[in-house]
Design brief:
The protein contains 4 helices and 9 strands. By secondary structure, it is of the alpha+beta class. The protein folds into 2 domains: 93 residues; 58 residues, no CATH class. The strands form 3 sheets. It has a 4-stranded antiparallel β-sheet. It has a 3-stranded antiparallel β-sheet with strand order 5-6-9. Strands 7-8 form a two-stranded antiparallel sheet. Helix 1 packs antiparallel against helix 2. It is globular, with a radius of gyration of 20 Å.
Length: 193
């Protein structure tokens, strides 16, 4: 990039603060953004435990005037087939006009004490554009405890193109506020399409 806009400089700073291959993430984002203006972004580093391994990931959501750019980076430890560690970085660009849903779940501790403007303790943001859906099925419950009949299944179909969860306990209250602000900007962009 010849002249780096201030928003990309802020994003790069947050990538370095996340500490997960920041230059790699910035490079793949630069390619995906293709010099389009950055309106808002959300950086979500995550550490998971898989059997005896610690694995790190980062998801970055970037809103431009015309697209949502989703970036996910995973690391892959060395093993018998691959003698050196590697990382895979995937970007997907979704036109704002293609967004089908922006679902936001706010978890509020002590809801009886909630006052206007209080932050949630946790936010889950689910963004759907029709590429992936999840079906959750469960047996239909019968009110008769002695009933042995099969009443079939019931369930929900949930868009699952990208789902991110941010918790004040794990990531801090500032991260929850940042996720909420990003969701507000994304909702405004989706509304305006």
């Amino acid at each position: 990039m010849d002249a780096v806009p201030a928003a990309f400089t802020d994003l790069r700073h947050d990538l370095h603060r996340a500490g997960y291959y920041p230059e790699l993430v910035a490079d793949v984002l630069d390619v995906a953004l293709a010099d389009e203006e950055l309106v808002a972004y959300l950086v979500l580093p995550e550490t998971t435990f898989d059997e005896a391994e610690v694995r790190r990931h980062v998801t970055v959501l970037v809103l431009t005037p015309t697209r949502l750019v989703v970036t996910h980076v995973d690391d892959h430890p060395a093993d018998s087939d691959n003698p050196s560690a590697s990382a895979s970085a995937t970007t997907e660009s979704v036109p704002i006009a293609e967004l089908r849903s922006v679902a936001l779940t706010h978890v509020i501790d002590s809801p009886e004490k909630h006052r206007a403007g209080d932050a949630a303790s946790e936010i889950t943001l689910a963004i759907g554009w029709g590429a992936v859906s999840r079906i959750d099925l469960e047996p239909v419950a019968c009110p008769d405890p002695a009933c042995e009949a099969d009443h079939g299944l019931t369930g929900t179909l949930t868009p699952d193109d990208v789902v991110v969860r941010v918790s004040a306990v794990a990531e801090g209250a500032a991260a929850v506020r940042a996720a909420t602000a990003f969701a507000r900007r994304l909702n405004a962009a989706a509304r305006g399409r």
